[in-house]
Write a structure and sequence with these properties.
The structure holds 2 protein chains of 2 kinds.
Chain A (H helix, E strand, L loop, with lengths): L7 H16 L44 H11 L12 H4 L46 H10 L8 H10 L1 H10 L6 H13 L6 H6 L8 H12 L16 E3 L21 H4 L7 E3 L21 H13 L5 H12 L8
Chain B lengths: L1 H58 L7 H23 L3 H45 L3 H16 L5 H16 L3 H32 L3 H29 L5 H30 L3 E6 L4 E4 L1 H7 L3 H4 L4 H5 L6 H14 L1 E9 L5 E12 L5 E10 L1 H15 L9 H18 L3 E8 L2 H8 L1 H17 L6 E6 L2 E6 L5 H14 L4 E2 L4 E2 L3 E8 L6 H17 L5 E3 L8 H14 L5 E10 L5 E12 L3 E3 L1 H11 L2 H22 L6 E4 L2 H5 L3 H12 L6 E6 H6 L1 H14 L2 E7 L6 H5 L5 E4 L1 H5 L6 H15 L3 E4 L5 H10 L3 E2 L13 H11 L5
Parallel strand pairs in B: 11-12, 14-16, 16-17, 17-18, 18-19, 19-20, 20-21
Antiparallel strand pairs in B: 1-2, 1-5, 3-4, 4-5, 6-8, 6-11, 7-8, 9-10, 13-14, 13-21, 14-15
Classes of the chains: A mainly alpha, B alpha/beta.
């Protein structure tokens, strides 16, 4: 293609296109098979074949270009207990990378045995979420990382003491100066942790299948995926992170919180952020990547088994009592979303 | 001296360098600012278009994941955050405020849209699949009707249908409760999703519409223009410096170097950008200010078939026009483009190979600093796939699933279109209404399944004898209709009608049995028999009625003379308008007797018109007219008021009348605030709600069940009794009626007339009474005239009797005497 007149407006137009393509990678593959005909003699709306040709779940994107030194510093900070008030816990205490990026408890335990408000979400693909925390109150990983450090029920620290401790460690100070000209600052601490978190996502067998390796999934897992789409789970759990890109009500088809004995502040969900009544009981749809590793489930950690969590979702979000066989197959599919390697 | 010279030389070298540096500083920094703002602003506008495109795709299930919409939202925030310091530098922060504000609104809208759309889209998907799966297994006309109405609603989304839809879904829920276990779960889910669709539809629609119409892009453009003006002022200041320094010969060299540097930079940027442009999956076309194509990307070539060389220099409208839009469409498009700088919409274009396709097109006008359009950018994607899906839903909504013919909705639509054309072309068109003779017998004796097969065969035969341009529809049950546009005269239609009658003559083999079916046809022709669709349909119906009465298996063309002479009607109408004011209406009262002890159990108020010339008129002479003209509301309110007042007076006078029954017309019932009117009248006249009984006809229930249902429930909650008049004459099944909250059933006089204890009529009356008893409803027999009927009704267990045997309707002044007379007949109290 040729541009005869390289005038500014033309340039701007082209830059605009560059921006466009930056966020929109359209998939242009043709439909995989022709849907069969319905009894009305028209193409059937086949549940296995959404109107769009590509799958509604996208493979894990490539990791962004990151500075390895910042990532290494972030990893160190992520495991550093000096970020808590009494030097007792680190980020990794609740987001154990070897356990799916969670702690396995219904709600996390903070400094001095304090009980947190919600179930710790996995950190493994947090970088793909559109916002952070169950109620989405943080827009970025950086904004999120500072939260637990200061939260009295979690690490209960204050920035001046944290910075002081880190500055006192000559090695740490050097590491900071090496990548951040202004040295040890709260902004740089969270920036390094955030960059480390951006380096964590690892592909699963399902990603291989999405990219064309038809043998990456067993028959059961494939059936489970079809059921996942047919029953409508896909309505919210879609995209590259299999969720994590929108807010949704917990209890669409029937009221979930009526079944609870007492409703906590955390149960109000996004209402706590916006103060709008229509946001009550609305949460960020969690990612299902590595979900098999992150029991117990839901924001309150109330359900220990994956199969039971699937059943609860079926009942309250889709209005159906899923047959046991379907639950088993869907759980099998969810297993295939576990990363094949640990970060 | 040498020292001086050396220092001068040094100065000579330093000063131009300083000048260069200053120049570079003043010009280049500012220029970069403008450039950055321009890039970011343009990117924001493009982002807005792209986000809107995503919203459209998600809304139509063209796409199921929200990643890109979420990414666009995040990027938009980043860009606005980048713009803020730029604006702050020129002290122009307030100019950016509207853009930030509209962005926040749009962002909140996007979050809500994602949430609602995920629910709506999933429910829509489930609803269509469940409806199709259930329809293939269950033979339920209600299910078919409800699912098609919901789908039609999705297509058209007219919100006044909502209440009716909701109530028909509740009705379906009632039916589903009686289904076998295996289907019930699916049925209930269908109802739940249907309800969700109705609840969320308007919300989803409003949200996506609101987002598409967001003024965000406009506020960004305005902010940019303000910035550009501010920048021009700053540049003007810089230029003054430049002029002062113009004497410096080095200035030229500096400018040359500067230009060279810039040129090289832009070349690099251009190459990078071109690569992105080439890889975009959406087709992109860039034209100059007068609409001539400058460049296109490969996706454009893939979709349209035209290469860049073929496209360059031509106008997109000439290249791709399909001829499917009228010039007004494009005029509108250009008006919007000129006014808003942006246009989005669906457009049908033609590929190089001649095939037409539908695209979703966004056009943005790019304006230069002088506000003149320098370029148009069109971004489009081929949405033919989505249109296919829409066509499918459209088909479901507009066709009768049994016969595949058009349904009532489509028929009305086509009729309206044809009428508009006929008005333009001045050519007549015909509407044929058809009704199979005695179809109900076949359905009842051979079963629905056989009835369905018969209807299919009839549909097949009828469709063989119509022209391509005609529309054959099944309006429901055994009712068919044919629309014949562009005929020469009524004779054409009559010819076809004759042919249709003949087509049905050969016997139909239904496997179980061979049957003969005939049809009666009524014909109305535009413009002689009606100027609009309502008139035409009504008159075709009248003609059909005449054909039926003429012995069936024939056709009849509407004959205006057979209707009441227009002038006579007009005269009556005018007189009726004054009747209320002139006190010409009167109520007569007929007693209802308790069948067991011959006491007065109630009174029915019956309206009469004391016409100054024509004498006392019975309601059948003027109530239909009152219904058509709307006067019925006033007359109905008058009846209610007068009857209640009369009852109160009798009570005051010690005349024992326990209850007053008042007739209510369909139109009255549908009028706003009917319940309030009734309750208000009751409290004003001082009677008890339980003393008032409202009589409604059976047909009113089938016409508008949801409205009737809601009003009945409300009135009964207040204690008012509801009676169904002329029971047994309508088409509704007993079970259907049983769903309504009703207290009293009035058995029609036609059944009572033939009561002799043995005939079929006795069986029917017995069935009605048994049904009423099982539903805890009371029964009133109308038209009791002889002792034999009284005996029969009493032995069958009828609760109340009404008729000439006891008393004719009486004017109010004669009533006290009648009561005394009847009391004398009643057994003495023990």
């Amino acid at each position: 293609m040729t541009f005869r007149r390289a005038r500014l407006p033309a340039l701007v137009v082209v830059l605009m296109l560059a921006a466009l393509a930056g966020y929109f990678q359209f998939s242009g593959s043709p439909p995989q098979s022709a849907p069969e005909s319905s009894r009305y003699g028209l193409p059937a709306l086949d549940p296995e074949m959404p109107l769009r040709s590509a799958e509604p779940i996208q493979p894990l994107p490539e990791l962004p270009p990151l500075d390895p030194q910042k990532v290494a510093l972030g990893r160190q900070l992520f495991h550093d207990r000096r970020l808590s008030a009494d030097n007792s816990i680190s980020c990794a205490s609740c987001h154990d990378l070897s356990r799916g990026g969670v702690d396995g408890r219904p709600v996390s335990q903070g400094v001095g045995g304090a009980r947190g408000d919600v179930n710790a979400p996995s950190v493994l693909t947090a970088s793909l979420n559109f916002r952070q925390f169950w109620d989405g109150r943080a827009a970025t990983l950086e904004e999120q990382a500072g939260g637990p450090i200061l939260n009295p029920k979690e690490m209960a620290a204050a920035w001046p003491e944290v910075i002081e401790r880190l500055e006192a460690d000559a090695g740490m100070k050097r590491a900071f100066m090496g990548v951040y000209p202004d040295g040890v600052t709260p902004d740089n601490v969270v920036a390094a942790i955030a960059d480390f978190e951006r380096s964590l996502p690892r592909p699963s067998r399902f990603d291989r299948w999405l990219r064309g390796d038809r043998d990456a999934l067993s028959d059961e897992e494939r059936q489970g995926y079809q059921l996942f789409k047919k029953h409508g789970c896909i309505g919210c759990h879609q995209g590259a992170n299999v969720g994590g890109n929108l807010f949704q009500r917990f209890g669409i088809m029937s009221h979930y919180f009526n079944t609870k004995n007492s409703i906590t502040q955390a149960d109000r969900g996004r209402y706590n952020v916006t103060g709008q009544e229509e946001d009550r009981y609305i949460f960020k749809v969690p990612s299902l990547r590595n979900v098999a590793l992150t029991a117990p489930y839901f924001h309150d950690g109330s359900v220990p088994r994956l199969e039971d969590a699937v059943a609860v979702m079926g009942r309250y979000q889709l209005g159906i009592n899923l047959p046991a066989r379907d639950i088993g197959l869907i759980a099998a599919f969810l297993q295939s979303l576990t990363s094949e390697t640990l970060p | 001296m040498t020292l001086l010279t050396a220092s001068r030389l040094w100065l000579l070298a330093v000063v131009p360098l300083a000048v260069l540096a200053a120049l570079y500083h003043w010009s280049s920094v500012d220029d970069d600012g403008l450039h950055r703002v321009e890039v970011a602003a343009n990117e924001l506008v493009a982002l807005d278009i792209a986000a809107n495109l995503e919203i459209m795709k998600l809304r139509h299930r063209h796409k199921l994941d929200y990643d890109e919409l979420a990414a666009a939202a995040r990027r938009g925030q980043e860009l606005l955050d980048q713009l803020e310091p730029e604006f702050a530098r020129l002290d122009l922060k307030p100019a950016l405020e509207p853009a930030r504000h509209t962005w926040q609104e749009k962002l909140a809208g996007i979050e809500r849209f994602k949430q609602i759309n995920a629910i709506f889209s999933t429910s829509q998907f489930h609803f269509i699949n469940l409806a199709e799966s259930l329809e293939s297994r269950k033979n339920s006309p209600l299910l078919n009707r409800v699912s098609r109405r919901v789908l039609a609603f999705l297509m058209q989304g007219s919100s006044e249908e909502l209440p009716v839809l909701v109530s028909s879904i509740y009705q379906l829920a009632g039916e589903i409760d009686g289904w076998p276990e295996a289907d019930r779960a699916e049925g209930k889910l269908l109802v739940t999703h249907g309800t969700l669709i109705l609840e969320q539809y308007r919300r989803a629609q409003q949200l996506s519409q609101g987002l598409l119409e967001s003024p965000f892009a406009g506020t960004v453009a305005a902010a940019y223009r303000t910035y550009a003006i501010g920048h021009r002022k700053a540049t003007a200041r810089a230029n003054q410096y430049r002029q002062v320094m113009a004497g410096f010969a080095l200035l030229l060299a500096a400018a040359v170097i500067l230009a060279a540097v810039r040129l090289r930079q832009s070349g690099a940027r251009l190459r990078l950008a071109a690569r992105v442009f080439d890889n975009l999956a959406e087709a992109m076309v860039i034209t100059d200010g007068s609409g001539n194509i400058q460049s296109v990307n490969p996706a454009f070539t893939t979709i349209t078939g035209y290469s860049e060389e073929e496209a360059q220099g031509r106008k997109p409208g000439d290249l791709l026009a399909s001829g499917q839009h009228d010039p007004a469409f494009f005029t509108r498009m250009w008006t919007v483009l000129r006014e808003n700088g942006q246009w989005q919409g669906e457009i049908i274009n033609r590929r190089k190979n001649g095939e037409t396709y539908t695209e979703w097109l966004s056009i943005s006008a790019m304006r230069g600093a002088d506000n003149r359009v320098v370029q148009y950018i069109g971004l489009f994607s081929d949405i033919s796939d989505r249109k296919e899906a829409e066509a499918y839903i459209h088909h479901l909504a507009y066709h009768d699933p049994l016969t595949g013919l058009a349904n009532r909705l489509l028929f009305r639509d086509r009729l309206d279109t044809a009428l508009r054309q006929a008005q333009r072309s001045n050519r007549p068109l015909a509407v044929l209404m058809m009704d199979l003779d005695r179809f109900k017998n076949i359905n009842d004796t051979l079963g629905h399944h056989t009835g369905d097969r018969l209807l299919k065969e009839v549909a097949h035969r009828l469709s063989c004898s119509v022209r391509d341009c005609d529309t054959l529809a099944r309006l429901g049950g055994d009712e068919f209709a044919l629309l014949m546009p562009e005929i020469r005269s009524a004779d054409d239609a009559a010819g076809i009608a004759g042919k249709l009658v003949q087509m049905l003559a050969p016997e139909i083999d239904l496997e179980v049995q061979e049957v003969f079916i005939t049809t009666s046809i009524g014909i109305a022709v535009f413009p002689e028999h009606g100027k609009n669709s309502d008139q035409l349909l009504r008159n075709a119906d009248v003609a059909l009625y005449v054909a039926k009465n003429a012995g069936r298996n024939t056709w009849h063309v509407f004959d205006p003379a057979s209707e009441m002479a227009a002038s006579d009607r007009l005269e009556l109408e005018t007189a009726l308008r004054h009747a209320v004011a002139r006190d010409e209406l009167v109520l007569y009262y007929q007693v209802q007797m308790d069948a067991t002890d011959n006491r007065i159990s109630g009174v029915e108020a019956l309206i009469r018109w004391q016409h100054p010339q024509r004498g006392l008129l019975a309601p059948d002479r003027f109530i239909p007219l009152a219904e058509q003209t709307g006067l019925i509301e006033e007359i109905g309110a008058w009846c209610l008021e007068t009857a209640c007042r009369q009852l109160a007076r009798w009570q005051l006078e010690g005349i024992p009348v326990p209850r007053m029954a008042v007739n209510v017309s369909a139109r009255q019932l549908r009028a706003q605030g009917f319940t309030e009117l009734v309750m208000d009248t009751i409290s004003r006249t001082g009677i008890q709600p339980g003393q008032l009984e409202l009589e409604l006809t059976e047909t009113m229930l089938s016409d508008d069940p949801s409205v009737a249902f809601a009003i009945f429930t409300e009135l009964r909650r207040h204690g008012v009794r509801i009676a169904i008049d002329d029971f047994g004459t309508g088409y509704s099944s007993l079970n259907y009626l049983a769903q309504f909250p009703v207290d009293v059933i009035k058995i029609d006089r036609s059944f009572v007339r033939n009561l002799d204890g043995q005939s079929e009529a006795s069986d029917l009356v017995r069935a009605i009474i048994l049904l009423a008893q099982s539903m805890k409803m009371e029964t009133v027999a109308e038209g009791v005239e002889v002792d034999q009927q009284q005996t029969a009704l009493t032995s069958l267990g009828c609760d109340h009797l009404q008729g000439f045997l006891f008393a004719k309707p009486q004017p109010p002044e004669a009533f006290p005497g009648l009561v005394k007379h009847l009391a004398g007949l009643a057994p003495a109290e023990h």
